Amino acid sequence: MKGGGDWIKPIATCLFGFLQAILPENIREVIFYSDTCSGQNKNSYDAAMFMSVISRINTLDAIHHKFLVSGHTHMECDVIHAMIERKQKMSGSLQPRKVNEDGEIFKWHDAQCLMYTKEPGIVNYKTALNEDELFKGLSYR
After folding, report:
1. Selection from 55, 41, 33, 43 nearest residue 98 by Cα
2. How many Å apart are CA 134 and CA 82, to the nearest integer?
3. Which residue in 69, 94, 75, 67 sits closest to 5, CA to CA?
4. What DSSP designation does 26 have?
5. Which Pfam families does the UniProt entry name for this protein (predicted)?
6. Which residue positions in the chain have pLDDT lower than 70?
């Protein structure tokens, strides 16, 4: 690998292939759970991949990508991911930011749940896993 982010695209590619090849036709919604690593799980490559999948699989209505509470999960690979994040912070790389439908700045780091639907180019997100919180929209058009 050349840099820490080189593995992001292959992960998205694997998820894409999995969803297209293995997902039964009777499944209407899919929920993914991930840790909160921005570089690994909260990124524009995954967003583009999930938007592509939802547009290609006619029977699929929604994909939910929920993120576990930071500091409450641990896997051995987390040590490696933490090292990569530290290197990225030291290099001064910028986090992708967009403005949501309300004019608020969107930060990948703050998202706790992403939802992809048939609405083209729109990612819905929440900053908490609270069921009462409404989704906000983020346009990729």
Report:
1. 43
2. 31
3. 94
4. T
5. DUF7869
6. 1-8, 37-40, 70-97
